[in-house]
Amino acid sequence: MTKLYTIKVKVNGTEYERSVEPRLLLSDFIRHDLGLSGTHVGCEHGLCGACTVLFDGEPMRSCLIFAVQANGHEVQTVESLGTPEHMHPLQEAFSEKHALQCGFCTPGFLMTLVPFLEKHPDPTEEEIREAIDGNLCRCTGYQNMIGAVQLAAKKMAARQEV
Amino acid sequence: MNLEGEHVFKGPRDEVYGMFRDPEVLASALPGTQSLNMVDSNHYEGTMNVRIGPVSGAFSGKLEIADEVAPEKCTLIVEGKGAPGFAKGVGHVHFSEQEDGTTLLKYSGDVQIGGTLASVGQRMIDSVAKSMIKTAFETLDKALEARLAAKAGQEVEFKAPTEAQFAAGVAKDMAKGWTQIAEVRMVLYVIPMAILLAIIGFILSKCN
Amino acid sequence: MSGKVFGQSVTRNEDPYLLTGKAEFIDDIELPGMLHAAFLRSDYAHARIKSIDVSQALKRPGVVAVYTAADFGDYWRPGPLQVPPPTAIKGSVFHARTLVPIAKDKVRFSGEPLALIIAESRYIAEDAFDDIIVEMEPLDAVVDLEKALEPGAPLVHEDLESNLAAHVVQERGNYEEAAAKADYVIKRRISVDRCAGAAMENRGLLVDWNDRTREMTIWASTQAPIPLRNSIAARLGLFESQVRVITPYIGGGFGPKIMTSQADDVLLPIVAMWLNRPIKWIEDRRENFLATTSERDQLHYAEIAVTKDGIILGVKDMFYHNTGAYDPYGMTVPLNTQTHTVSNYNVPNFKTEVKMVFSNTMVVTPVRGAGRPYGVYVMERLIDYAACELGMDPVEIRRRNLIRSDQYPLPTGIIGQDFVEGVLDSGDYPEELRKAVELIGYEKFIKEEQPRLRAEGKHKGIGVVCFTEGTSVGPYEGARVTVGANGKVNVSTGISTQGQGHFTVYAQIAAEELGVDVRDVNVTTGDTGHFHWGAGTFASRGTGVAGSAIHLAASKVRQKAIKLGSKLLGVPEDQVELCDGKVCVAGDHSRFISLGEMAMKANPTRGTFEQGAEPGLEAVAYFGPPYGSTGAGALAMIVDVDPGSMDVKIEKLAIVHDCGTLVNPMLVEGQILGGLSMGIGNAFYEQLKYDENGQLLTASFMDYLLPQATDMPDEVLLGHVERPSPLNELGMKGVGEAGAIPTPACFAQAVENALADCKLQIAETPLSPSRLFELVKKSTEK
């Protein structure tokens, strides 16, 4: 058996301490060790973006790094955004604009877009396309996501005013 | 995949030919070679372990030397397989003496690859192959220099590159042409490629 | 036709769960004591297996078991033919060679499973690949479709005389006579290469056998839960009721998940029984590319006979269809090609012949579009070649030949995937074309913009094509609609859902009928424990067929509620109505009984019961159409070609579609947009490329290019023509495949128009910048 390493990772605000094999992918750690299965794995080679999480606030593909590399870092997953009863404005906008179908890739898009919207509170269509260009979706053709992100930006701006 | 090329060895043909008939030199030109055994004068068997970054793969190969007209030419038939897939190749190698006392090696071959090598590595295999062959020739050049020096009574140190050095060389060559490709994974694919290349190099070197 | 919720763009009931990571997909399920499976797959495309030594693998800590074909004894046998042979077509030849669960004696495609490893973790199971020693004798591979049928070609199935899997000829009228009378006969060789379904979620199966109750629960990411359950039960000698197949949320289907006889489907259930532990298998992306099914791989020799006025007299098409190493899915795909080759147009004489060919490549089964895109591609290309030859406007030549709106129902004379003669039930093709031409601004572009752009040295082109989409085919689907004691409505149906929005669309259908809030309708799809009759999700039939069954079942429940309401409220039935979750007296809504209370009363637990009555506010209904309803549309696009890089940007795209009654316009548009992105991929980005030895060269998203957000058109315009189908009460037709069907044909026309007008004649798809560069180079050399 491979040697196990003890890691401490803060995920969605909770500190976890776990013993893991050094080869365990962060995506598998999040999904199977922590049971946070909202992060999905679509290709295991860093191209589809479904497994995107925030790593110290920046979007990162959790299938391309090992859990041990997350030791001492902070991770946020889709579970940190909202609940079915109280969704994040971006989640609401995705539903209102029909920007998801099977929903498998959606958590990756959301985790890519949350920091994007922080940096671009009023994004253009072109900026949105660029932002999501690294995430693959087979169902929607991306078109409705553009409108959803613009709607989310408006919702977020309105909330800040209040 | 077709491979074709040439290389000039700074030494007489007989000497170059002799070097290629020395399994130890051969193995040194192909880092990761764990064993290279002569089954009979025309058949060799070997195993090779190539490691680059986090991926490693064991490859076992068979080599047959056919239509040999020493020290002028031969045909190499090679088959290798392992976790990353398989390779099957036929290579024709030709040595000619040149007026300046050097030896010109010309090679041409057709290599069939399968498995992960083909399905995820195909678009890089060409450049990796060329790079690996180049690295192998550089090593052989040094070996030849050492042999010739030893004959002349001088000592020139010949040290085969380590696997890591070899891999780094390949990766560097690769990077020149492939800087834009999906970051991390590319490095992973270099490994199976390297293994394949090693096999090809193995064939080529045998021929000499 | 629209009502309070039916016909409205309501947001989806399923969204909050999907958006917050709460929706459970198959790999999210963890059971106590669960083992993990991995398949060692063949690197060779065609080889004889000499030996497989697994002894070292068994010694690896964490490996529980390793199996090869030999370990399965008599249980090993080829899977069932999932779609029957085309015996309805006179003179047809069909050789069934169905999928084998795991390779025995010989492998027939690269990626075919050789050994099944069961371990405590997936990591360990894959470690064991290195321990297994496989000795194989490589054989020459068959990849090229024409060479495959040459005498002496290596045989994929050695018990057959050749690699011919099937041969079907269908004809209406007499093409040869028509061609003799034509002013022009134009012949071309047209090829269509492969693409993948590439759902973002790969396949997966989790089997849990309970040794005490002798019941098996299977979670599967399948499009066909009921056929899967039936075939597993039959193989294991169990009753269907002992096996429950549950589909969790599924991350896209697009066709390949319809298969029920892949290695995992067949082997995991029995291994789970042997080991008496739950076993999970999740396909990885490379396996999905190599060994799940894929589609589109045909070579056509097609010709069109036209008069000098551009009237089509006849079309002939002889084509080869690659079925891959096996043909478990019958002839669905090539039959779709045959039915979709001429269906928009009046073509009095049509001959279509298919030779289906075995090859050493992955098995071919439907992928979104399923044979339709290349029928349309061939026809639309032929019309474009004819327009060039005649010097006629591409839109005008189409106008002259389109089926008119007064011709329905129109029998086509061609038997399709449902083994009955195709009949075009309804539509208005000229109106669709007119609208698309108007939306894209065709006249203005051709007359004003393009001449100006050309003068500026820009290469922008326009394309306009028409298409039909056979949908909502039989045999049947069913549904159960139940009002619960909580006053809410539960709907169950046998088909499964892969993201289409069934949880909402079905809720709308039931809610409209029963007067409840759409959020108060819970829909269960694809759980044989809830509903266990039906065929599955394919051929854009979810709404048209299962939706119709739900409508019928909900109507029955409504009748029951009215009957019981009349009794309880003491008023005649015609004075009772359903509103806001209650049964009320018409005109006096203060007199009512809630649906929940009614549901309780409909299930008396003491006293007497009326003979012949059925308990509960519940009903089951089934629906099967006599033949499928045909959706249709027209697509137009303007492209900008960079002649230096041969990159093509779709600037503007307009699609007009008729799917009959729109249940939820927003979701219909979502389907069209998604289909379009796949069509764009099929036109210019995606290609599963095999080398001559049967090695797949594009088994990752690095080489298999799925369209990205920046590859999509800058502007998309959608239009609808609503011609309800007479084949079901609600007038629905399918829409799932619409966008994928016409796109490659339209793209080719637009690119030709941008570059050279007739000098370049594209006769293949998919294209790519490098392929386009070669074609242009060739056309200018001529």
Descriptive labels:
A: about 160 residues, alpha+beta, Ubiquitin-like (UB roll), DNA polymerase, domain 1, B: about 210 residues, 7-stranded antiparallel beta sheet, globular
Give a verbal description of the structure.
The complex is a heterotrimer of chains A (162), B (208) and C (782). By secondary structure, chain A is α+β, with helices and mostly antiparallel strands. Chain A has five helices and five strands, in the order E-E-H-E-E-E-H-H-H-H. A five-stranded mixed sheet of chain A has the order 2-1-5-3-4, with helices on both faces. Chain A is globular, with a radius of gyration of 16 Å. With 208 residues, chain B is an alpha+beta fold. Chain B has a single domain, classed as START domain (Alpha-D-Glucose-1,6-Bisphosphate, Chain A, domain 4), CATH 3.30.530. In chain B, strands 1-7-6-5-4-3-2 form a seven-stranded antiparallel sheet. In chain B, helix 2 crosses helix 4 and helix 5 (163-177) crosses helix 6. Chain C contains 19 helices and 30 strands. With 782 residues, chain C is of the alpha+beta class. The longest helix of chain C has 28 residues, at 542-569. Chain C is 27% helix and 25% strand. Chain C folds into three domains: 15-22 and 475-623, Aldehyde oxidase/xanthine dehydrogenase, molybdopterin binding domain (Aldehyde Oxidoreductase, domain 4), CATH 3.30.365; 204-291, Aldehyde oxidase/xanthine dehydrogenase, molybdopterin binding domain (Aldehyde Oxidoreductase, domain 4, 2-Layer Sandwich), CATH 3.30.365; 298-390 and 398-473 and 626-781, Aldehyde oxidase/xanthine dehydrogenase, molybdopterin binding domain (Aldehyde Oxidoreductase, domain 4), CATH 3.30.365.10. Chain A binds chain B through residues 45-47, 64, and chain B through 182-185.
